[in-house]
Design a protein that fits this description.
Helices cover 40% and strands 17% of the residues. The protein has 16 helices and 18 strands. Helix 4 runs antiparallel to helix 7. The chain starts with 22 loop residues before the first helix and ends in a 26-residue tail after the last strand. The structure holds adenosine-5'-diphosphate. The active site is at 297.
Length: 508
């Protein structure tokens, strides 16, 4: 049973390998890859016309005004995939102007016309599934199977909001005076600034852009500097789908400059952001001057509770999926696996066995289920957290060090006897480390689970139906997976507590 719960708003929510692969880099790629050669993958993407390295402003592909570029690297090999335009405030200002101008035409189309363009975009994303997935695996590192899954997931937002475009109904409210009639008409608010992270290079964009365009808003997207190629390819397909020049603009490069320009602009009416809590706070504060709407999806610290009465196979499978997706680099990853005393030993040994079966490698290899971490800083963070836990009494049950493949690969790791005084408990590790935390009673599990200011997602494994409802309602999280480890879907908004404010309402 997968249970997704809506909660009250109060609770929340380098030269281009691309352009030409050098002979030496091809050799290097082959050395690393079994199933697909990185050079061949890039050729395929280029042949499809989806290797874009310039920003998109007003329907035109443009270089940074000062000609600067930044390198996009393959985290699995360190190869430079491309040099992309490194933009800043001037390009962002032009992108905003273009979005603002286009707003007056895009918003005047009928919902049905906008819906058709979005539907076409969805179809093009799906018909270029392989190229988009290859791009994601190359620039982000996730295994191809997950990348293909992300294309489905990412495109599903466009499909869903193409359909919803036609259902932006207003309200008729019973009047308070006999001679009055009260009508609510929903109208798009204007230009939306969308700032997205690297861990879902496609889906975090479509999830923000889909609802905005559907309602008649126009968008300036700033993808992560680590993964701009997928964003640019998706934007190319949007243009091909008939989404007009200027309705979707993409700028990337100097993040603080781009962010500041978006925040300061009076034409930008809303900021939607997924990323770190620190940057989210800056954006929220910076948006105050121009009184913008803000939607933030910040860090998560998901608990995953395994009760004594859980089906152990279901619990192992579910917690494995919830923890190790994208090598532990998702905001809904099970960050703290709370295991009841009676099942702890049995669960721990079955879980360790399951984690041992994970194949670490280059995401282009068919057998790979765990790719590299995004960069060296991410590995250092994981090392710090694991070191902190062991210094305080936790025990490494599996892994616990860098992988022999080098680069930013880290061994899938299980750490036992973690407690709430450790970084592995209090902060998001964002890596392939599963901390097991023993508990005695249901009350204790709920208390430990809620002992954080993040409120994005939680998981629970139990065969007791009454307990599943009781505990779901006691968990202060926007999404609760019951006996299920994969809970993300396009149809549910995530409304969350304190540091997370995310809603599908970029426009009204
Ligand atoms: P993560 O740790 O997940 O990379 P970040 O918050 O650093 O999270 O990054 C998420 C997005 O926010 C990226 O697109 C990044 O470039 C952008 N970003 C980082 N700093 C700023 C800033 N000062 N203003 C606007 N955007 C920023």
């Amino acid at each position: 049973m997968a249970m997704a719960m809506r909660r009250a708003a109060a609770l929340g929510a380098r030269h281009i390998l691309a352009a030409s692969v050098s002979a030496s880099s091809r050799v290097a790629s082959r050395r690393h890859m079994g199933s697909v050669d990185a050079g061949a993958a890039m050729e395929k993407i280029r042949a499809a016309g989806l290797l874009r390295t310039r920003g998109l402003i007003g329907g035109k592909w443009v270089d940074a005004y000062d000609g600067k570029t930044i390198e996009v690297q393959n985290p699995a090999t360190g190869e430079v995939l491309a040099n992309v335009a490194c933009m800043g405030n001037r390009e962002t200002a032009d992108a905003i102007t273009s979005a603002n101008t286009t707003f007056y035409t895009w918003s005047k189309l009928t919902a049905s016309e906008r819906s058709k363009a979005l539907r076409k975009w969805h179809d093009l994303l799906m018909s270029h599934k392989e190229e988009l997935a290859l791009l994601m695996t190359l620039e982000q590192g996730k295994p191809m199977k997950e990348a293909l899954g992300e294309v489905n997931y990412g495109a599903s937002f466009i499909e869903f909001f193409a359909e919803e475009a036609k259902r932006v109904y207003g309200d008729i409210i019973p009047p308070t005076l006999a001679d009055r009639r009260l009508l609510v008409l929903k109208q798009p608010i204007g230009v939306v600034g969308a700032i997205t992270p690297w861990n879902f290079p496609l889906a975090m964009i479509t999830r923000k852009v889909g609802p905005a365009l559907a309602c008649g808003c126009t968008v300036v997207v700033k993808p992560s500097e680590f993964t701009p190629l997928t964003a640019l390819a998706a934007a190319d397909l949007a243009l091909q789908a008939g989404i007009p020049a200027g309705a979707l603009n993409v700028v990337m490069g100097n993040a603080p400059e781009i962010g500041d320009e978006l925040m300061q602009s009076t034409q930008v009416r809303k900021i939607t952001f997924t990323g770190s809590t620190a940057v989210g706070k800056k954006l929220m504060a910076g948006s105050a001057n121009t009184v913008k709407k803000v939607s933030l999806e910040l860090g998560g610290n998901a608990p995953c509770i395994v009760f004594d009465d859980a089906d152990i196979d279901v619990a192992v499978k579910g917690s494995l999926a919830a923890k190790f997706r994208n090598s532990g680099q998702t905001c809904v990853c099970a960050n703290r696996i709370l295991v009841q005393e009676g099942i702890y030993e049995k669960f721990a040994s079955a879980f360790v066995k399951a984690v041992q079966s994970l194949q670490v490698g280059n995401g282009l290899e068919e057998s790979t289920s765990q790719g590299p971490l995004i960069n060296e800083a991410a590995v250092q963070k994981v090392e710090k957290f694991v070191g902190d836990a062991t210094s305080k009494g936790a025990n490494i049950m599996l892994g616990g060090k860098r992988h022999s493949l080098g680069m930013s690969f880290y061994e899938p790791t299980v750490v036992g006897n973690v407690s709430n005084d450790m970084l592995l408990f209090s902060e998001e590790v964002f890596g392939p480390v599963a901390p097991l935390i023993p508990f005695k009673t249901e009350e204790e599990a709920i208390h430990l689970a809620n002992d954080t200011n993040a409120g994005l997602a939680a998981y629970m494994f139990t065969k007791n139906i009454a307990r599943s409802w009781r505990v779901s309602e006691a968990l202060e999280y926007g999404l609760v997976g019951v006996n299920e480890g994969l809970i993300s879907t396009e149809v549910i908004e995530r409304q969350i507590k304190s540091l997370n404010l995310l809603r599908y309402e970029p426009t009204m």
